[in-house]
Inverse folding.
């Protein structure tokens, strides 16, 4: 006698073979903002064998589905990873604020510099006209 039950052949029932539904030959293209199924455009055909060459874009990261079969699925994240992400986001926010403040200061400095340069140009133009007046008076 076996550990997990009797070994009699009449006790075992054979299961019927599995039958899977037919998969579609094409996959609809995804377009952001396109929620209507009637607006879906067919994409490239699905490869029939796993050995077919499939172009892979190295910069595209795989997306995790947020819902499967229309039902929202929970996403589990370790709390230490979550805290690490939150800390990194806070650091990014503070750095972005610093960068914004620096850009504002640079803009103020540039505006001040432009005002000074404009004043120098005006002074130079005024000096030129005065010099031309003196030159005219001397050589008349």
């Amino acid at each position: 006698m076996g550990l997990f039950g009797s070994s009699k052949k009449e006790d075992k029932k054979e299961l019927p073979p599995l039958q899977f539904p037919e998969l579609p030959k094409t996959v609809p293209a995804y377009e952001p903002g396109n929620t209507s199924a009637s607006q879906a455009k067919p994409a490239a055909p699905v490869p029939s064998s796993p050995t077919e060459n499939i172009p892979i874009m190295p910069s595209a990261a795989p997306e995790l589905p947020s819902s499967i079969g229309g039902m929202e699925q929970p996403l589990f994240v370790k709390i230490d990873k979550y805290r690490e992400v939150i800390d990194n986001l806070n650091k990014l926010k503070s750095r972005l604020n610093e960068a914004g403040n620096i850009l504002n200061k640079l803009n103020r400095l540039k505006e001040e510099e432009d005002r000074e340069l404009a004043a120098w140009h005006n002074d130079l133009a005024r000096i030129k006209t005065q010099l031309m007046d003196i030159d005219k008076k001397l050589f008349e």
